[in-house]
Amino acid sequence: MEQIPLNKISCGDRRYFEDGIRTVDFVLAFNSDDYKVENLKKRKIFESNLENEGLHLEHDRSQHIYFVKIHAPREVLYRYAEILKIKLPMKPVPGEQKIFEEECKLNNDTFLEKIFTFVRIPSDKFEAKTKCIHAEFQRKYITLFDCERPNFFDSGTRIYIINFMLERQHFVGGKETPNNLGIEKLLADGVYGWAYTLHDEDERKLLLSQWATLRKWIYLQPLDAIKDYFGAKVAIYFAWLGFYAHMLIPLSILGILFFAYGFMTWNSDPISKQICDMNETTLMCPQCDSKCDYWDLRKACHASQFNYLIDNNMTVVFAFMMSMWAVTYLELWKRYSAILVHRWGLTGYSLEVEHPRPQYLKKLKKDRKIAKKLEMMDEESLSNFEMPFWRTQFIPSLTSYSLMLLSVSISLIAIFSMVVYRMAQMASHTIFGDANSMAAKIMAMPATAGMIDLTIITLLHYAYTYLARILTNWEYCRTQTEYDDSLTTKIYIFQFVNYYSSLFYIAFLKGKYVGYPKEYNRIFNLRQQECNPGGCLMELCLQLAIIMVGKQVLNAIIENLFPYIMKSIKKCYGKKMQTKLEKRNQWSEDYHLQPWSSSLMFGEYLEMVIQYGFVTLFGLAFPLAPLFALINNIVEVRTDAFKMLKHIRRPIAQRAHDIGVWYNIMAIVTRIAVTSCAIIIAFSTNLIPKLVYLIHTGDTDLTEYLNFTLAYFDTKDFEIQPTLGDRSKYINVTSCRYADFRNPPGHSEPYERPSVYWKILLARVVFIVLFQNITGAIQTVIAWAIPDVPKKLVKRIASENFLLREYIIEYEKKQAQEEAVDATTNDIATWINEVDGDDESLSLRSSKDEGSEELCDTTSL
């Protein structure tokens, strides 16, 4: 039994058996009023099987919730560490110190290490781990492992081993099948109500004070301590989130510089200067049919200046740098995760064979034909049994994905409804007839629409998440991994359409197919929306800022208030039921916390990947998006840590070597972002028209560029004569201007497309193709140039494997020599015994011969 000195038990640490020696590693709980004979029998068999495996169990029945405390002794941990091929620290291996010294010298000599020493974790709080080589544990080599190390089995590893055992113990007598296997099935059937592991008060207080607080935002995360406490899967999430935040720093600086360039060159923009310094009135055509007046282009002065902040000579450079940043971030993350995985002894880890989900087995029982087949199968055949696709899985899968497409269509309809709402508002409101309506055109309408979009998006977010779970439950997902992958695909497709569709509309569609005053393209007899006087790029900027920042603020409020709300509800409910559970020890205290679920981690990943899409897909229109993302992520790391330590039960530790399918999603988004940036630059900025104008006229000062982009219209040619209102100053207007490339009224082909329009369109298409292919090619080169695993790490792994192999060979040689010596010693001892036996037999024979001679003499006498 593993002994823990009594002087190590603090007053606040109530995680021990009644003997005060054995720690409580895991807890099962159920209601005291559960007297069902079947449940009692299942619990008895299940707990008996756990004890047969070597686990120690102790019951706490002092309150209305009964607890089963579980402790794993060292012998059990040794056995299952070998079964699960867990890598554990070894004793010093000859030659390892040279490897560590070279690595330490290389790390300490780097320029960045010297600059950023102030962000390192205080060594007096989290002691640096003693460097050692990890190897797969084998009991026959137990003397080679550093078993006396204080944290040889960290709490995460202990929990992982016990959970593995709980998932594979049967709870019925007779034939053992996956249908009567594991704690998950017992929880699903209500045999046990709860199964969780306990927080460690001392470690939790340390993490709360040094990690889960905004006061420590500048410091690096104690990833090794997080891994020991929560397990590798949770630690990988926090490592990725921290790495993502650090990678946003250079992009945020780049965005600030881009924005600052716009401010510094504000007055040098020829388009803004032409609009603001006009001496004559340039009347623009009304933007709606009713109560919309002609308006003076000079009123768009501030809008054009604001638009220049994001549409200037550096726009292409910023878009290119963002694309390079995205692929560099993904490649560097692979390198960084490889270092972490090796440090945590998870190199070469692969998922073990998963047992079927209890929900899957329950669905199998409903099909009588399949249920009969299952009864005739042995355990191995049943574990590998796959449902026939066309007869059983096809209809649920088809229904699930059909409803998913229907839901996506509903989301698109919601966005389309918002477009129609804006068009109807344009047709009915009176603000455009007012002389001071330019602020409403530029700010009020986009801001109002953005807030409404955010509200709809937030509501659909929860509706889609709920619907995705229902649809996935219909499918026959055999293992938890299959279920998680299917759920991830559905939810991300939902949220991709939900969050990005309105932004794609503004970036790619709005104002592109409006028509012209003589023949507007209408929907439900309503004119399509034109870009506001500042341009569609400015509106995209406002929409992105509202949705992205608003989403971050709402998520922060919900995540931080929800635990307190649930705690209050549970407290009120407990008072009504008059069954309050007293917090006498750690297991009863953790019982009051919110249960841990894998969906919590899924939600955190989804939130960050959606944010990554905002930054890469549309960050060109909002250069400060990386900065807001950085600020949010700095807060997110600390608030997520606080939530998991303070309000949620301790997660069951799991092994992992990467962030899973989320990396592939971000890689796809990165490729889409290149095309998105190319289209936004080509169709929503002035870059291409300026280039064509320069080539066409040779006017480097762009003195006539504004006139070049505005077409003339004869007011008598209006399709529907606009109603100007009683206070209009422009009653007898004969002509107006509108933003388009068309022939003037007096041309032989009035209002038709001139050749310059087709040149601009061709230039836009060529730019998209060139930008996409050149940027994509450079991204491919960067991905090839940055190895997934650092060369130093590859060299170190090779050196460690060589040292381990030689070390084990020497150990085996010594063992063989000792066995040979022992065998020789045994042979000599056996020979000596045989010789001694022969001497005794000879003496007996001689004595017998003498006796026989005496007898003969006596007879002769």
TrEMBL record:
Residues 226-798 form the Anoctamin transmembrane domain. Keywords: Cell membrane, Glycoprotein, Membrane, Transmembrane, Transmembrane helix. Residues 851-861 have a biased composition (Acidic residues). The chain crosses the membrane at residues 237-263, 308-327, 398-421, 442-464, 491-509, 609-635, 656-683, 761-786. It is a multi-pass membrane protein. Residues 842-861 are annotated as: Disordered. Pfam families: Anoct_dimer (PF16178), Anoctamin (PF04547). GO terms for molecular function: chloride channel activity; protein dimerization activity. Its main location: membrane. InterPro entries: Anoct_dimer (IPR032394), Anoctamin (IPR007632), Anoctamin_TM (IPR049452). It is found in: Cell membrane; Membrane. Residues 16-223 form the Anoctamin dimerisation domain. GO terms for cellular component: plasma membrane. Belongs to the anoctamin family. PANTHER family: ANOCTAMIN (PTHR12308). This is Anoctamin. It comes from Stomoxys calcitrans.
